[in-house]
Design brief:
There is one protein chain. By secondary structure, this protein is α/β, with parallel strands linked by helices. It is built from 17 helices and 15 strands. The protein is about 40% helix and about 15% strand. It has an eight-stranded parallel barrel, surrounded by five helices. Strands 8-10-11 form a three-stranded mixed beta sheet. Strands 1-2 form a two-stranded antiparallel sheet. Helix 8 runs parallel beside helix 10, helix 9 runs antiparallel to helix 10 and helix 16 packs parallel to helix 17. It binds 1-deoxynojirimycin.
Length: about 500
């Protein structure tokens, strides 16, 4: 048993953290870094030949959908300020930087018939600047900003997209692969599909829950597998990198330890994380999804399930398309069994058929969906280890929001410390966690919430033309964690 240290200061500072902080050092090769995504930080939305993407389109044509009618036209202006961003990362001592490539900045038509050299050079320069500063690039190929021209052909719900994504991924490997050793095909595909094509709360804001979200996912998984195979066959031997996908989930805690609530929580986990991970790690969609959706589809009078089926050939092509596992985690919720929802208009949530709630006394943040539940991190990591055959896990996002009213972001310091402590606990449990990525390097465009929810270690002054970056208190904290690999004053060696 390792000695644990109770950090009283945090109790006093926030009144909500009485967790014990793990006092073992993180291993020397553990990677600490921060993340951003192209549309959220780059700006320069129509500069130097970039094509329009679905977020440009949504924010310009339906501005009322976004808080404050905000958009990413300028955002943090990282397109022009990437050197400054890398200097911030250097100052933090970050081992890696996770950023994403904008498809329409590289291929303005969405297809390789036209390459935008200025856009390519932007990413080459950014990668070179990271290299010059010994910071490892962790590159996401797709973080939600589909070229609008491809959306107009049906986007992720049309089969053509699989070839289109594969072509785009190949271009990325060709252009940047000599200097990129960690790739991610997709960021949080559940948000792309469920929110983009299911409940309509993200671009392209289509509302066809229980149908189009499944179709989208089917194509995303096939696209992921194809990109992995392209990398494996055409690039791995010369570029020697690793490629996977980043999947997000809450930790779903059962309401109590009754068998029915345990089963409900597991159903929710399978419908959320398993929807994407199971075919890639274990083969096919989770059994509970296949059965429930088939049964409900039949009860609706449909001749086949709303959940598409992979062919046998596809199943074996998809299985094993991972070199590690990317995991985004922020929060938890409580799940309980409920009576079977009535048959009616199809919906992903009725297909799951469980109740979900968040207790009133869980500490909150500036985001309604994000409660501070560090204990969920350890439980989730252990569940992922057991369910997906003990993969190496790279935590590719974790973080908390505030409203930007103060640079003294105690909430973020406590959040990082307590979540990281649970990561370290999970490593003690035997979970193979290889890295941790704080979301986010700086405040940025938080999708439909515009600039109202701030996730940054650095504050960004969106009123100033210069988009001035200012460190919050959490910068000193995170810097010390990276330098010492330790969450308390003195650590036991790993
Ligand atoms: C996950 C997404 O990948 C990122 O784009 C978003 O800003 C954060 N979560 C916070 O909501």
């Amino acid at each position: 048993m390792s000695l644990k240290v109770v950090v009283l200061c945090c109790l006093l500072a926030t009144g909500f953290s009485d967790d014990e902080v793990n006092n073992k050092a993180f291993p020397g090769d553990f990677l600490f870094g921060t993340a951003t995504a192209s549309y959220q930080v780059e700006g320069a939305w129509n500069e130097d030949g970039k094509g329009e993407n679905i977020w440009d389109h949504l924010t310009h044509t339906q501005p009322d959908l976004v808080d404050g009618k905000a958009n990413g036209d300028i955002a943090c202006d990282s397109y022009h300020k990437y050197k400054e961003d890398v200097a911030l990362l250097k100052d933090l001592g970050a081992n890696h930087y996770r950023f994403s490539l904008s498809w329409s900045r590289i291929l303005p038509n969405g297809t390789p018939d036209k390459l935008n050299v200025a856009g390519v050079n932007y990413y080459k320069n950014l990668i070179q600047e990271l290299k010059n500063n010994d910071i490892i690039p962790l590159v996401t190929i797709y973080h939600w900003d589909l070229p609008q021209v491809l959306q107009e052909q049906g986007g992720w719900t049309d089969d053509f997209i699989v070839e289109a994504f594969a072509d785009y991924a190949r271009v990325c490997f060709e252009l940047f692969g000599d200097d990129v050793k960690y790739w991610l095909t997709f960021n949080e595909p559940k948000q792309t599909c469920l929110q983009g094509y299911g409940d309509g709360s993200m671009a392209p804001a289509i509302k066809e829950s229980g149908v189009m979200d499944y179709k989208c996912t089917h194509n995303v998984i096939r696209s992921h597998a194809k990109a992995w195979h392209i990398y494996d066959q055409e690039f791995r031997s010369t570029q020697n990198g690793r490629i996977s996908i980043t999947i997000d989930t809450n930790w779903f805690e059962p309401d109590d330890d009754s068998a029915e609530n345990e089963a409900a929580a597991e159903t929710k986990r399978q419908f959320t994380f398993g929807w994407y991970a199971n075919a890639i790690f274990n083969g096919d969609y989770p059994e509970v999804m296949r059965t429930r959706i088939a049964n409900r589809s039949a009860a609706e009078g449909l001749s086949e399930s709303r959940l598409p089926k992979f062919t046998d050939e596809e199943l074996s092509y998809i299985l094993g398309t991972h070199d590690y596992l990317g995991l985004n985690v922020y929060t938890s919720s409580i799940i309980k069994a409920i009576p079977e929802p009535e048959i009616g208009t199809p919906s992903y949530y009725s297909d799951i058929g469980v109740g979900e709630y968040v207790p009133d006394d869980w500490p909150g943040s500036a985001s309604s969906w994000l409660k501070v539940t560090p204990w969920g991190m350890r439980k989730l990591l252990n569940w992922v280890k057991t369910t997906y055959n003990d993969p190496e896990i790279f935590i590719t996002e974790n973080g908390v929001s505030e409203d930007g009213s103060s640079l003294e972001d105690e909430i973020r310091i406590n959040y990082y410390r307590d979540y990281l402590s649970n990561v370290r606990d999970a490593m003690d449990d035997g979970v193979k966690v290889i890295g941790y990525t704080a979301w986010s390097l700086m405040d940025n465009f938080e999708w439909m919430r515009g600039y109202t929810e701030k996730f940054g270690l650095y504050y960004v002054d969106f009123e100033s033309q210069n988009r001035t970056r200012v460190p919050k208190s959490s910068v000193e904290f995170f810097k010390k964690v990276i330098a010492t690999r330790c969450l308390v004053d003195t650590c036991e060696e790993a």
